[in-house]
Each structure stands twice: as structure tokens, then as C-alpha cells.
Amino acid sequence: MGIRYGARTRPGTMVSTWLNSLVSGTVPPPPAGYFGGGSAPGRVATVDKFAFSDDSRSTLGTGLSAVNDLLSGWANSGTAGFFAGGYSATTVDKFVFSGDVRSTLATGLDVVTYRAGAMANSGTAGYYSGGYASGAASKVLKFAFSDDSRTTLATGLSSARYGLAAMANSGTAGYCGGGYTGSNVTTVDKFAFSDDSRTTLGTGLSAANVDLGAMANSGTAGYFGGGTAPSYVATVDKFAFSDDSRSTLGTGLSSARHYVAGMANSGTAGYFGGGSTGSNVTTVDKFAFSDDGRTTLGTGLSAATTALAAMANSGTL
pTM here? Predict the structure, then answer.
């Protein structure tokens, strides 16, 4: 029927959603991933959209509300995606997936923060963790999807750090990995979505790493890729959500690079895009979740871009 939903969709949800869309006269927007902002080489407001049906790229007519890099992204899958923070910015831009219409939240970040990690419990809230705000930060901000209101978690990261990445097992827990505290770290903090409590995994990243990317196959596993450890790496670490065990993929990124962004079509494939190998790249690597096999898209980003962010609409998670 041309409508695909993520791996966590309950039996019958796809059919009932489609039937409801016929009754209401609306059709859910096709699943797609978005890469936004970055440096190419000056800061840009560009938002590139990749249709998951065929991996074709288009560029939104309306990009970010201002040029920005070192920002972060998360999504309420099926509804809207968010690009937040960045260099000299507290802004949170919201893109409604139906029509890709952009608005800017009345309440943004509490202070200018960049090089943070972002993740989401789809349907409930998005989280913006750590980053650099006149020094390394341990704070975790939470944005409720019901009204876009912002709160601050009572328990933040286990250490103040920036240059980290984050991903989530929607409905269960989010993970914040890597970063810089004065030196690179392997730390992976886990936040249970039921009560926002934090634990720290006994097994962290395979190497101390900063300025990496992350994405997840919700219900199955999350992936941290690229970064600086201490030189640029192509490594992709995989964390199984069943027991939080870590493995490292035999095939990593197609080139060693940092400041990459990650997003996923949950249930199908994940994507790491952009970054720098010493010079900016347009590369978008795709990892099939069925076997973790990697291909590189024939059409990459619209411009060679680093320090960008990403988020995705995977349908109903």
C-alpha cells in the first residue's frame, strides 16, 4: 500500500492506521530521514530529505530558521522532527512531517548549548543531553511532545561532557555515548523512559570517542559510528537492546570521519551522513538491519557538510 511502519508496530496497526486515514481523508506522510544544518564550509540552514522508499534526496524549500552547525536532532516519529541548539543558538526548530512545515518553539534551550546528544521516546518526549555551554554540561533537557514544554531531568549525565551522541529504544530507554570530559570517554549512560532514571552500562564504547554519530533500530539495537578516537575512525559499535551487550561491526563506515550524523528507518536500515575526513564529505552510508551490511547511497547530501544533525520519520513506532 506504499505505507511502511517500524519494527515495533503492533499487529494490525498498519492496516488500522491506513483505514483510519481513509475515513479521515488524511494519509500519513511517507517515511523519510532528514539531515539539517552543518558547515559546508560556512554554516548552512539546509535540510536534505531522503525518502526511505527509494533513498532519493530532495532539499526542503524551507530550511532551518537560521544558519547553524554543531546542532542536534530528534523526532516524534510519524508526527514531527526537531533540530535544536548549535553554535550560538538556543533555538529549537520543529518540522511537521505532514507538509514539512517548520515552526520555532517558543521555549528553546535554557542556554546556548552545542555538541550535545539528542534522542527521543517517540510519542512522549525528546531529550537533549550534555553538550558545551560555557564548559562541559551534564544537564538533560526533556521536551514533552504533547505541548513542546521543556523540563530538566533531576538526574543528568554521569559526567559533564560534550561531543557525545545519543539514540533510543523507543518506549523503553535512551542511550548517551562517548564525548569529551577533558579527555575522550567510552561511557554509555542509559535513561529508562518509565521514570527517566539513569544507569551507566558496564560495557561502554569499544574506544574512547568524541564527535561521533548514533542511530537505532528500535526494539532491536542501537549503533554508534565514526568519531575521533583519537584520530578519525570508521568504527560502528552495536548495542543489543535485549541485554545491552556490545559488538563491533565487521564493516564500519566507508571512510574514517568525525562530526557525522545518524538517523534510521526503524525496522529496515540506518544511515550515517556527512562529516569530515579532513575535508567535508557528501557521503551517506546505509546499514541494512537484516544483516548490518553496508552500502553507500549513489546520491549523497546536496553539499559536502560536517557538524550536521539528523532525525527521521519511521512511521508509527
Answer: 0.92
